[in-house]
Design brief:
The chain has about 650 residues and is mainly alpha-helical. Helix content is about 60%, strand content about 5%. A hairpin with a 2-residue loop joins strand 2 and strand 3. The longest helix has about 40 residues.
């Protein structure tokens, strides 16, 4: 059963055929994309130059019924219906969504004032200039409607006029002209909130923020967005605003980028975007979009911008964009690598690789960074610009610390090759690292995750570490690390002892310089040098330990003195006992009381000999203590020397 006919302003439709309600038989049929319009010659010929010429040619063939097929008609059957209504004298409603297509159709059919005054071409052009170009939202809608026929309307310059109007309104402070309240007066209540069907929504119109137009232009296609950004740049739009618009557009149309950075591109909707929708039938190619975005990006530095670039590089690895685009992104990141963070550098390896992370692109970025810093140093030597040299050194140190942390993070990957780790560690110059603790930590993690490495491979990897640049804590850990090659452990022990001697010598010189009446300059120089050595290598703990040992030795010396006094008192008591008791029994009795054992062969009638033996026995502990004290001091002296 056929559907009922649809009536619309003097025309009705049956299946794929449109008929006029005039009641007269049709003498001309116009076919567009399989839809037939059964019309009359006079209304069309009087206003359409193209159809008039076709009608004049048909007179020579004596054809009573003219049939025309219009190939690639702008807008298709829907727009031709508007043209037919205009030719029959019905009221035509021009809007922002159809005016560009109607104007292009009038140009296609040659509906100029030559055939009739105030023809459709003139009316559509007047409506476009008076209504569309003065309204922000209508310009966006007109551009959206022009995307299907963009290549055919370039000669009409309608797109360029819309782009110029949008750039002018975006570059101008909207508060000066009351935008968007002036343009969207019907959407605003007296209280300043947005109205929807006359209902107060409570949402406020954003007029003073510089990014009020980001959401609206994000509905444009890649081609139109690119042209709009270039037009705004030529008009003098601030680079910060252009960068914000590009980042907003990218996050909205590259879902992986918005998801990784933890924010969505279309969170805030302005008044214009309330009635905007993506153009029907248009699908944005993400690969083409990313390559176009990269060309639009300015030469800018910043933490958020650097993170955005790393996000683009991550998405570029997924989409497999051209090598030129990847290399350009790597160069941009390399120019500001000191502003990057560790998590943003962890780019997964999406290609056919066993490793978890893409270390090649990070290595390329580091090389670009080193090349950039070298160029800066070449053009601004330290003698001419010391501040620039200091800033360059600080950037190198930051990047070195960042890369060491990155290597430590990826070192646990069992599929990471030793050559990748070594080349990444050696990408930075030696002067960028004052300490090699970060490299040692990364290498220790790698050895722990790769226990199957041969001794030769461990030896080669250990060459990236300079044992002289390890702190005291790293040296203490390395000297007991069983995963390190024996040669490295011996080097660590050697340099550890060398640092210890240097630091102690510096401390002695500093202390001696304070007490001795040496020249002031020499004392100050020695003290500063010793202090720098101690603070640099972390030997303050050794000095404190030496002070503790000194206190222990003082306490031991005091104890020895107390023991000597006790033995002296015992000796005096023995002499008193010897004089008061007999020479035969009392000495032996007293000796047994105090626990001394006398030699049996000594004669009881020899008190002097007995006294001497007691002297020797009593003096022996004192001598042994003195010897112990001297040996203890000598051992400490040898250990610290």
């Amino acid at each position: 059963m056929a559907p009922p006919p649809a009536k619309l302003s003097g025309f009705h439709r049956q299946d794929h055929n449109w008929y006029s309600d005039a009641g007269l038989p049709s003498d001309i049929t116009v076919s567009i994309e399989g839809v037939n319009f059964h019309l009359h010659k006079f209304p069309l010929v009087s206003k359409c130059g193209k159809i008039a010429r076709k009608y004049d040619d048909s007179k020579n063939t004596n054809e009573k019924h003219l049939t025309m097929v219009l190939e690639e008609f702008p807008g298709g059957p829907d727009i031709f219906l508007i043209v037919a209504k205009f030719c029959y004298g019905f009221r035509v409603e021009l809007t922002a969504k159809n005016v560009v297509l109607v104007h292009c159709a009038a140009e296609y059919l040659e509906m100029t004032d030559e055939y009739e005054e105030s023809n459709l071409l003139t009316k559509s052009e007047s409506f476009f200039h008076k209504n569309i170009l003065r309204n922000w939202k209508d310009c966006i809608l007109a551009l959206q409607s022009s995307e299907p026929i963009l290549s055919r309307i370039e000669n009409l310059h309608l797109v360029d006029k819309c782009l110029n109007a949008l750039s002018m309104m975006a570059c101008t402070d909207p508060s000066l002209f009351g935008w968007p309240m002036m343009m969207y007066g019907s959407f605003q209540s007296p209280g300043g909130s947005i109205l929807w069907n006359g209902i107060n929504t409570g949402a406020r119109i954003r007029t003073l923020e510089s990014e009020w137009w980001f959401e609206d232009i994000s509905y444009l296609s890649v081609n139109l967005f690119e042209r709009l950004i270039k037009t705004m740049r030529a008009r003098g739009m601030r680079p910060e605003s252009l960068t914000g618009a590009i980042m907003y557009y990218s996050r909205k149309h590259l879902p992986g980028l918005g998801r990784w950075q933890g924010r969505q591109g279309g969170k805030t909707r302005t008044v214009a975007s309330l009635s905007l929708t993506p153009a029907s039938g248009t699908t944005i190619d993400q690969k083409d979009l990313l390559e176009s975005i990269e060309k639009l990006l300015p030469q800018k530095k910043g933490k958020s911008f650097c993170r955005f670039l790393l996000g683009l590089l991550r998405v570029a690895s997924i989409l497999n964009v051209s090598e030129t685009c990847k290399e350009s992104l790597e160069k941009r990141i390399g120019m500001q690598l000191e502003l990057a963070t560790l998590d943003s550098l962890l780019i997964p390896a999406y290609a056919d690789s066993d490793a978890l992370y893409n270390t090649d692109c990070i290595e390329h970025i580091v090389h670009h960074f080193v090349r950039t810093e070298s160029n800066l140093d070449a053009f601004s030597p330290s003698s001419l610009d010391p501040q620039a040299s200091s800033s360059s050194s600080e950037s190198l140190r930051k990047v070195a610390k960042l890369i060491d942390s990155y290597i430590a993070e990826i070192a646990s990957d069992v599929n990471l090759k030793p050559g990748k780790l070594r080349s990444l560690a050696q990408a930075l110059p030696e002067s960028s690292r004052s300490l090699h603790d970060g490299l040692y930590r990364a290498l220790d993690i790698y050895f722990k995750a790769h226990p199957w490495l041969s001794d030769n491979e461990k030896e080669e990897l250990s060459n990236i570490i300079d044992c002289q640049k390890l702190s005291i804590h790293a040296c203490a850990h390395a000297s007991q690390n069983e995963r390190l090659p024996l040669r490295v452990v011996l080097q660590v022990l050697f340099f550890e002892q060398q640092h210890l001697r240097t630091s102690l010598a510096g401390c002695v010189n500093a202390l001696g310089g304070e007490s001795a009446p040496a020249p002031a300059a020499r004392v100050t120089a020695r003290g500063d040098t010793a202090s720098e050595i101690v603070q640099r290598d972390g030997w303050v703990a050794v000095v404190r330990e030496n002070q503790v040992l000194k206190k222990d030795m003082d306490r031991m010396s005091t104890r020895v003195g107390e023991l000597v006094e006790e033995f002296t008192k015992i000796k005096q008591e023995m002499k008193t006992v010897t004089k008061s008791h007999s020479a035969r029994d009392s000495p032996r009795l007293f000796a047994r009381k105090i626990g001394c054992k006398l030699v049996p062969r000594f004669s009881d009638a020899q008190p002097e000999s007995l006294d001497r033996s007691f002297d020797r026995s009593l003096c022996t502990p004192r001598a042994s203590m003195e010897r112990a004290r001297r040996s203890h001091k000598s051992r400490h002296t040898e250990s610290f020397s």
